[in-house]
Fold this protein.
Amino acid sequence: MSTNQFLPLVEKIKTEGKCLEGGILKVDSFINHQIDPIMLQLMCEEFARRFSNVHVDKIMTIEASGIAPAVVLGYLLKKPVVFAKKKKPSTMANMLTTEVYSFTKQKSYTVCCSKEFIKEGEDILFIDDFLANGNAAKGMIELVEKAGAKIVGMGFLVEKAFQNGGQMLEKLGHRVESLAVIESLDNCTITFKE
Ligand code: 5GP
């Protein structure tokens, strides 16, 4: 696991991040509601640098908050971006589906993606806003495997190391790059991993 902290993001979280009950970090002022495009560009340039030695055919994410960083990274790498949908569109043919348990909403939902947009043999870079227990990431690995494609890397803006998703993904053999790694949110204090 990379504990290589991306300092501009760490500073932004220190000034604007808020802790909520239950180990949730609220970053609504620049990631999850209002979006700071300058910070987004900086973060995606850092992803591009960290994954520069990896062959990527396509970037994948899950709606909604992963879409902005995935698109900016896709723009930088000049690669297409596909987002898995949380609601099954009635018009979608050849659908791949998987179940994902949501930590923030405390319920399971079905994630789907058309086979048209993940093809056998493709190298997929997965991007998302947060890594907590890794359920969303696990669901995406399943979707990509069902399509016969391969995950070549997983990038997260923020990883909450106390929830062990990173360890789980690395045990499965995945390369994980998290730009800011949080050690603890105990007592509503944001502590970054050393
Ligand atoms: P996981 O599936 O890894 O348990 O959780 C990842 C997903 O849950 C992310 O896509 C994100 O939407 C949401 N999430 C988990 N923890 C947090 C958090 O502390 N803050 C925010 N804003 N979203 C979170």
